[in-house]
Design goal:
CATH class of the largest domain: Mainly Alpha
Mean pLDDT: 86
Largest sheet: 8 strands, mixed
Oligomer: single chain
Number of helices: 31
Distance between the termini: 70 Å
Helix content: 55-70%
Number of domains: 3
Strand content: 5-15%
């Protein structure tokens, strides 16, 4: 029996659709630590076996990546995952952002999805409420900092219990900070933690009686508590010297885990790893008591749990609810509590003797008792960005504690105001602006229609039977997929960015923004920060490109000669460019660390003093330049090498006959003939370097210290994704674009490389 073409098409397309139409796919975005992912995968596999018609697609994202990615997907496109897992402080920003053409938040209120008996099973902290609604249900409580200590190292110096007060912590830290080999360098620190980040500063701020917000939810940072906490941080680093001169999260974590630090302040997400470390005899206690105030150091305490996307409905919503119940079940929470020492959110498990008799969970509960509930209002984004530079200025000696307290209060007020600027604009002015831009948009659309339809398509149809027209049609068909892709990924976002740059878009009106004319551009040019960052960006670009070209051409000249093992050298020299920037930048950051980095080790070998590369703005900026030079010279080397190999050798012979020296041959033969090759490469290198966010962000950890190592693109990134100033950031980015376009055209014209010969 023969099948018709229609039957064959039916078999190919219709039957697979029928077979798989019953499968419901639920996407879960989460920020669980790598050591917890296997537990999550095991639970998901169990759920899928019990529910064969539901497929779970789990995707891990970093905390910041999760927040910004979900906001972009849900608010701007109405997409994103059905279920999102993260800390409770993301609830505020998620609630404020609204869906497109809707007053709904991008996360769904949960109180109508489940009955009261379901909610009654959880502790109050697990039900994250904001503006009267439950937006998140937590599977674990805490997410808090505590003091972890290594009993083994304590016993070596005759200590049998952890410190209970700040004074004891300092005293113990001195005993446990040891130069074991007598070379003048500390081999074991008494205390390590990510002390330059405000989240790790909060416990001491709270211990001295500080509160981030007052009763009216206004910043309350210029206080005696802030001054005393800043002074303590400065003393621990510069007076008592019981903590490293430079220390980020990874350095602190590795030192403690490898038995090279006796105490660490870290969160409950890290304890499972320390419990398994062969070099750590794990002990846990509260962050010490402050005798001066009679208060315990008070870290932020929060829940970590699940929220549902507001766009989910129908069978997908039913499947999402089913998955959520499973992930919050006793079985799931018991798994995480046993393996990772997290405090469950279910009341039944909190009273279970098998958990409450666990010494780690007991101590963790004691820390929670004196902790402070994490604020979940969106303004916390501005608070972190205000506290960070103030704290780092104190640690670097650029500010006194009193000056830093005043500075962070001022910054917090400014940043919170900037988050909401433009939310209440004049309706009359906006109506006029919208009308003007609609007219301009229609005019532009008509012009593009004329260019692309009349000028292009009609020409193809002018003589449809000619061979030239048929060839043109075939070319159009081949180019169409790439053109469509380019339109979606480049052309449309570019013009959308132009429109946004004339708007008041921010966190509160991502889908209800209005045109406000040149307001954002005026703000950019009226701020002093633009000019200082622009000047720094020029230095960054000029220094990098100069060394990229100089080193690249020099190496290309050497490789163009007859050398033994030239192929091996060429491969080795191209490696810095071939390795992903992310890996290289983080490697160089580690090399620049003051007490453990390879750079200072080499300096000490030649009798020079160590440099605190990442603690000072100038040296941190230099560190970024060195890293980017390493990344960039191979590209210029390969371009120059290709150009050199195209130069006829007869020209060098003629110059040699005329008596030209090697230097004269280079200037009069090599340089002019390399110019057509190198000028476009230099132009491209300048554009790349000007916009190189990766190196600057990764080496300096986002513009540190004290936000003084920003270039334009990193400053724009922080404005857009930390403070949600989308209109402002779009205007800033358009200014960067115009600067680069003007420079590129001028540079190419002045160099005359584009002229026909």
């Amino acid at each position: 029996m023969r099948f018709s073409k229609l039957s064959l098409l039916y078999l190919i397309f219709i039957i697979p659709i029928f077979l798989f139409s019953e499968t419901i796919r639920i996407h879960l975005w989460h920020q669980m630590e790598p050591q917890k992912e296997p537990s999550l995968k095991t639970l998901i596999s169990e759920f899928e076996r019990e529910n064969p018609n539901i497929e779970i697609i789990a995707l891990h994202k970093g905390t910041e990546e999760l927040r910004t990615g979900y906001q972009a997907a849900a608010a701007f496109t109405g997409g994103g995952p059905e279920l999102v897992y993260g800390p409770m402080d993301q609830v505020g920003p998620f609630e404020v952002m609204k869906l497109k053409k809707s007053d709904k938040s991008i996360i769904m209120p949960l109180e109508d999805l489940f009955d009261e008996d379901f909610f009654a099973r959880f502790s109050d902290l697990a039900l994250v409420k904001y503006k009267g609604h439950i937006y998140q249900i937590a599977d674990r409580l805490g997410n808090h900092l505590s003091l972890v200590y290594n009993k083994k190292l304590f016993a070596e110096v005759g200590l049998d219990s952890p410190p209970q007060t700040i004074e004891e912590m300092i005293e113990f830290g001195k005993k446990l900070t040891i130069d074991k080999d007598g070379d003048g360098k500390i081999d074991q620190y008494g205390l390590v933690w990510n002390y330059s980040e405000p989240f790790w500063f909060i416990p001491f701020f709270g211990g001295f009686g500080g509160e981030v917000f007052d009763r009216n939810n206004k910043p309350n940072l210029n206080t005696e508590a802030a001054i005393k906490a800043f002074q303590l941080m400065d003393d621990l680093k510069n007076k008592y010297k019981i903590i490293p001169q430079e220390c980020d999260y990874d350095i602190a974590d590795n030192k403690f885990n490898q038995g090279r630090a006796a105490m660490i302040i870290n969160g409950d997400w890290s304890w499972g790893k320390y419990l398994k470390s062969p070099k750590v005899d794990f002990g846990l206690t509260r962050i010490p008591f402050v005798n001066e105030t009679g208060l315990w150091s008070s870290p932020y305490v929060s829940a970590t749990g699940y929220s549902i996307n507001s766009t989910v409905s129908g069978t997908k919503l039913d499947a999402t609810k089913k998955l959520l119940k499973f992930l919050l079940s006793e079985h799931a929470q018991r798994t995480f509590s046993k393996e990772h020492k997290s405090i469950p959110s279910l009341k039944s498990l909190q009273s279970d003797p098998s958990f409450m008799n666990d010494p780690v969970l007991q101590e963790s509960s004691k820390q929670i008792e004196v902790g402070t509930l994490m604020p979940i209002i969106p303004e916390m984004r501005a608070i972190w960005d205000a506290m960070r530079p103030a704290l780092q200025n104190v640690l670097g000696g650029q500010m006194t504690p009193i000056e830093a307290a005043e500075y962070q209060q001022k910054l917090a007020d400014e940043k919170i105001n900037s988050m909401y600027e433009g939310s209440e604009s004049s309706p009359e002015k906006n109506t006029l602006m919208n009308t003007i831009f609609i007219v301009l948009g229609i005019a532009l659309g008509l012009f593009l229609t004329y260019v692309f339809i009349y000028k292009f398509i009609l020409i193809l149809l002018k003589n449809p039977k000619s061979q030239e027209t048929r060839n043109s049609r075939f070319a159009v068909i081949l180019a169409a997929p790439a053109a469509i892709l380019m339109f979606g990924m480049v052309v449309y976002p570019f013009f959308y960015n132009i429109v946004i740059s004339f708007s008041n878009m921010n966190m509160t009106n991502v889908n209800s923004w209005q045109i406000v004319g040149f307001t954002q551009y005026i703000k950019v040019f009226s701020e002093q920060i633009f000019y200082s960052v622009f000047f720094k960006t020029l230095i960054w670009t000029v220094m990098n490109v100069f060394f990229h070209v100089s080193i690249g051409v020099m190496l290309a000249v050497l490789l163009n000669r007859k050398l033994p093992g030239k192929t091996i050298f060429r491969v080795l020299l191209i490696l810095p460019w071939a390795v992903p920037q992310y890996i290289t930048a983080l490697t160089w950051r580690g090399m620049f660390m003051s007490d453990t980095g390879a750079i200072n080790l080499m300096l000490s070998k030649i009798g020079m003093e160590s440099v605190n590369w990442l603690s000072e703005p100038t040296t941190a900026f230099i560190a970024c330049i060195i890293t980017n030079i390493w990344l960039g010279f191979p590209f210029m080397m390969m371009i120059a090498l290709g150009g050199l190999q195209s130069i006829p050798y007869e020209l060098y012979e003629a110059a040699e006959i005329d008596g030209a020296s090697s230097w004269k041959k280079f200037l009069n033969v090599t340089v002019p003939l390399l110019k057509p090759v190198m000028v476009p490469a230099i132009t491209l290198g300048i554009v790349w370097t000007f916009n190189n966010l990766n190196v600057m962000w990764l080496v300096t950890n986002g513009g540190q210290p004290a936000d003084k190592t920003h270039i334009l693109v990193s400053y724009v990134y922080r404005a857009a994704f930390n403070l949600y100033r989308y209109g402002y950031a779009a205007a800033f980015s358009m200014i960067i674009f115009v600067v680069l376009v003007i420079f590129s055209i001028t540079f190419m014209n002045k160099s005359q490389v584009a002229e026909k010969t």
